[in-house]
Q: What sequence folds into this?
């Protein structure tokens, strides 16, 4: 029992400093490993943003490909007559003999109906 008293008496603040310091250092680095600027949560956030940007690139590429196909149909060497006919009718208001064109404009204003 006397030895235990001597052991308890020997525990000094200097002997507690090293384990507390080690625990603090481990906690500090563990926290920054997860929450730091280059930590695990930042890595996950960056990966999600990268996936979103890849999806946006794919969508843009598909839209560009569709527009390139439309332009290719309007070139002289590969002229799509149906597309040209549709564009001509819409832009110039032309029609074939025997066709009936119905022009739908905005409804007349209420003030013009009373006159």
A:
């Amino acid at each position: 029992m006397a030895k235990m008293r001597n052991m308890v008496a020997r525990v000094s603040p200097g002997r507690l400093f090293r384990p507390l310091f080690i625990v603090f250092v481990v906690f500090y680095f563990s926290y920054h490993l997860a929450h730091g600027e280059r930590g695990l949560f930042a890595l996950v956030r960056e990966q999600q943003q990268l996936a979103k940007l890849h999806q946006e690139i794919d969508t843009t590429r598909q839209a560009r490909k569709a527009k390139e196909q439309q332009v290719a149909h309007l070139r002289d060497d590969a002229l799509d007559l149906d597309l040209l006919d549709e564009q001509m009718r819409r832009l110039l208001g032309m029609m074939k003999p025997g066709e009936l064109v119905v022009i739908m404009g905005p409804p007349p204003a209420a003030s013009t109906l009373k006159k």
Summary: Residues 40-73 form the longest helix (34 residues). The radius of gyration is 39 Å.
